[in-house]
Every structure is written in C-alpha cells, then in structure tokens.
C-alpha cells in the first residue's frame, strides 16, 4: 500500500504524483527534479534564454546588490581620483608661466592618464569578483541553495586572482588585435597616394576579421570563469577544458550569448534614452529662467543619468554572467551526465559526506565523453 505522505498532488490521469525525493512505483517514470533555478536535465534553448533573468528574481540582494555595489564603488573611485587629479592638473596649467605652459600641459596630461590606471585596475578586480559571485550563485541556486551576499563573496574571493588574470589576458588580446589593425591602417595612410585606398580596404577587412576571430575565441573560451571557480582549475587547464566542452556546440553557445546580450542591451537603450531626454526637459521646466547657478541643472542631470546607468549596468552584468554559467552547466549535463551528480547531491541526506558535484575527478576529464541529446 502506498504511503500517503510520499504523495502530494494528483496527475492528469488521477494518479498521485510523488513528492520530491520519494520513490515512484516500480516501472513508473518521473521527470527529473527541479529543486532550484533550473530542472536537473539538459536545458532547452528557451530555458537558457529566460533562466538568466530568473537569477535576478531569485536572489536579488546577493546578485543585483553585488553588481550595483561593485559598479557604484568603481564609478565613485573614478570620479574622485580622476576628478581631483584633473582639477589640480588644470589649475597648475592655468597658473604656470606662459613660456613653461607647453611642458606643464604635457605633464598634466600624463598625470591625468596615469591617474586613470588606478580605477582601471580596480575595475578589472571588481569585474572578476562579480563574475565569480554570479557563477557561484547560479551553481548553488541550481541545487536549491540560496546563499547570502557575504557567503557568495567569500566563495568567489578564493578564486579572485585567476579570474582577474584571465580578465587581463582577454583585455590585452583585444588591445593587441585593435592595435595591429589600426597600425596597418595608419602605416598605409602615412605612405599616402594610392595606399590610402588600401588603408580603407584593410581597415574594413581587418575589422571584420578581428570581429569574427574575437567572436570565435570568446565563444570557445567563454566557460573559463565557470571552470576557474567551480572546478578550481588554472587558466591553462580551464581554457583547454572550455575548448573541449564547447566542441560541437559552438553555434548554440554563441546564439544564446548573442540573444541574451541583445535583449538586455535593447531593453537598456529603451529605458535609458527616453529618461535622458526626459531629464533634460525636466531641468528646463524646473528652471526655465536659469535662476539657479548655471552648473546646478547639469550636475543634477548628470547624477541622475549616472544612477540609471549604474542600475542598468548591474542588470546587464548579472544576466550575461549568469548566461555563461548556465551554458557551462548545460554542456556538462549533455556531455558528462552532470544532472545525475546534481540529483544525487540534492537527494542526499543533509550532513552526509557527498562530494561537490561540480568538481571533476581526473579520470573523468581525460576519459571519453558521452554526448546527450
């Protein structure tokens, strides 16, 4: 006789449905459980599109709060450091003798550029930390866990330096690629004559080639942050493993990332553009005769636009980071049966010695993969 405590709702055919973790009758099929963010089975294309937005809804204080805190801190540091250095540098230029003004201007320009390196370095660390936070949140949310902001930061902070180094390598590669194309165009322009037409052609073709190469490399290595955080790999091992996991799923991976990025950026533009126009009109209506100081309306407008940009930027960063983490989990389900390990972890008795399901034993990495539809 069936224990009524193990059943909680009827199916369409009138039979009771098993509660999560209960044993179904012999020969009956039950769908894989969904204890948290996503079902524990290979994800469909639609699920990969909407699940990143569910990350924001499920734990907004830890995800959106982290992104807003990080981006707000970087913006404030940038305004303070670069703003103060620029103020004193320009004041020094204004007070310099006319015969020395050219040298003072050159020194002031160099000082301002160097001051911008401070918030730039901090932004690299901050973006790496935020990416790690979202990866941990997606991984634990899939298991039905809901961590607080402090716990997420501590988990991501343990892998901060490899994440930051990987971010620097990506940025350096992009700068080198742009520099090569720009250098070729500048060289042809300097020669002059018929080489100018070649400069235009090389600029167009070089930009298209750089865009294609960048999209290909970014897609094949997009799982590196998830691998660094969840599998605790080094950068070299993470790149090789990301290359292996995306093998055969390049277009699917690129398509999901492109569509999610397009959605969030279109929404951000739809929200920010009318607000920018509205703020300008509102300032004119509040102070039509310019009775206030001349700079005050501009300062108010600038602060409001920065606030809106911070909110939208936080949403975009969370959704895009969550997308890559979900793609990582989906590919491991398809190629390595991760869904079985996740289900085993979820159904285990609390306090039991069950290993982290995301860690990969060495034989599993080098062994053959079974691709699942």
UniProtKB/TrEMBL annotation:
Does the keyword Transferase feature in the UniProt annotation? no
Annotated region Disordered: the residues are 1-33
Q: Which key words are in the record? A: Membrane, Transmembrane, Transmembrane helix
Q: Does the keyword Transmembrane apply?
A: yes
From the record, give the transmembrane residue ranges: 68-90, 110-139, 160-189, 195-218, 249-279, 299-329
Name of the featured protein:
Glycerophosphoryl diester phosphodiesterase membrane domain-containing protein
State the species of origin. Answer: Cryobacterium shii
